[in-house]
């Protein structure tokens, strides 16, 4: 198991609390900004699951000035490492370096064909017209 600091396992990012995210921010050298996360609602599930929450969003919550490019570069690098190693989000190959969730197992399997009856065809009927119950 990969560890980012004394008590935080990277594999457990999804279940990190707000305090654990603050601890991670401190461990990557951004101690001056970590307290800005207190009671912010930022937690591991947000980092791991929200595709719209990126390093810039985190920098905004941390209140890192845009002029502090060094701190923002550290945050970007470490945030991307955290997502790559500790979540199911993956880096897109496009021009922008953004992470996306990997397809879930539900999307990997085709929906089952229920005896060739299309139950979602828009019709009010759920059984074929010639269907009869025999005893």
Automatic annotation (TrEMBL):
One of its GO terms (cellular component) is presynaptic active zone. InterPro entries: LIP-1_SAM_3, Liprin, SAM, SAM/pointed_sf. Residues 16-85 form the SAM domain. GO terms for biological process: synapse organization. CDD domains: SAM_liprin-alpha1_2_3_4_repeat3. The keyword Coiled coil applies. Keywords: Coiled coil, Repeat. PANTHER family: LAR INTERACTING PROTEIN LIP -RELATED PROTEIN, LIPRIN-ALPHA-4. This is LIPA4 protein. It comes from Psilopogon haemacephalus (coppersmith barbet). The gene is Ppfia4.
